[in-house]
Amino acid sequence: MAQLPPDVDEDDCLPEYRHLFSPDLLRDKVAFITGGGSGIGFRIAEIFMRHGCHTVIASRSLPRVFTAAKKLTAATGQRCLPLSLDVRDPPTIIAAVDEALKEFGKIDILVNGAAGNFLCPASALSFNAFKTVLDIDTAGTFNVSRVVYEKFFQDHGGVILNITATLGNRGQIFQVHAGSAKAAVDAMTRHLAVEWGHQNIRVNSLAPGPISGTEGFRRLGGFLNSQKLRSLGIPLQRCGNKTEIAHSALYLVSPIASYVTGVVLVADGGAWLSSLNSTEMLPGLPSFPTKL
Ligand code: HXC
Ligand code: NAP
User: Which of 28, 160, 179, 220 can pair with 168 through a Cys bridge, CB separation 3.0 to 4.6 Å?
Assistant: First the structure.
């Protein structure tokens, strides 16, 4: 049985780290990571940097990415450039990508990790709430990919990793917005893999299950105690942690996956295959006012 890599719940670096892959796996690569200031994106940045990569971490809140970059550089000794952008707003993306290219001269890896989500029944979801999540997750992933392609990947190749979810695979309750958004991103992964493959661009999705120590988990599963979690029916009987997701990301962006493109790697302990998916698993939820 593989040993579970340790993790910490906060947006802090790991106090210690044992390499499973070669520490040089991403030596001198540059990764542009949206949503890299927190949660899964922060740990992906850390694990990439522990394998020799420099990073750009970008999200709306400059203080958030600035603080994160200081922690990441202190823990790994690699360079980390914090930048502000809104993935819904192309001019801010163009400015950030230009800044990254000015600083590093190249981008090898793009991780589209920025996302927004909340639990809400379809019957209570406003038009704007549905649109907001699709704008961030789906249009945002396209927008950033399009800019990085235009500015660098079309001439030099590269790797794109889209962080998605399995919500739409079975139609998870209260998740019509995020499930639809992420399913569209998985389709986008296949389209871009086919269209951009001849330019030496690989495009893959990574779909985590419930991951502890994240905003996503606090919003979607934070009300579940550990006993309830075990009884949800996840085959591996537990949530995942951020380091486990970062290791899957590391594999997909690295040369080990050089012939892998257009796939969705699910890292969820088997959860989507067999977990419960009904309103009974959501005790004590607030009532949702309906609003158009
Ligand atoms: C219902 C909601 C809502 C909620 C917002 N809205 N929160 N509706 N329930 N809890 C509605 C608002 O009323 C508004 O509609 C519309 O959504 C836009 O809201 P804003 O607050 O103006 O949007 P914005 O400031 O752009 O913020 C986006 C956000 C926010 C998604 C709403 O929560 C955010 O910034 N999230 C980023 C962090 C995050 O979500 N992390 C978790 C990712 S986890 P009206 O009609 O009133 O104008 C994940 C997958 C997890 O993605 C999968 C787990 C298995
Ligand atoms: P998180 O910490 O809230 O990460 C989301 C990040 O996106 C934040 O850093 C946020 O920073 C950024 N962001 C949100 N809207 C943005 C926008 N419009 N423009 C730019 N950046 C924006 O949540 P997480 O749980 O770690 O999720 C990370 C990724 O994993 C997401 O793609 C999520 O869908 C996916 N995922 C998570 C889980 C889980 O269990 N946590 C499961 C499946 C999939 P700012 O607020 O500073 O913008």
Answer: 179
pTM beyond 0.90, yes or no: yes
CATH code of residue 127: 3.40.50.720
Question: By residue range, what is the domain housing residue 166?
Answer: 30-290
Number of domains into which the chain is organized: 1
CB-based pocket (< 6 A), ligand 1? 115-118, 120, 126, 128-129, 132-133, 165, 178, 210, 215-216, 219-220
Task: Render pLDDT for 61-101 as a digit per residue (tens, 0 to 9).
Answer: 999 999 999 999 999 999 999 999 999 999 999 999 999 99
DSSP state of 12: S
pLDDT value for 37: 98
Q: What angle do CA 151, 152, 156 make, to 5 degrees?
A: 155
Residues recorded for the chain: 292
User: Cβ(82) to ligand 2 under 6 A?
Assistant: no
How many Å lie between the centroid of ligand 1 and the Cα of residue 177? 10
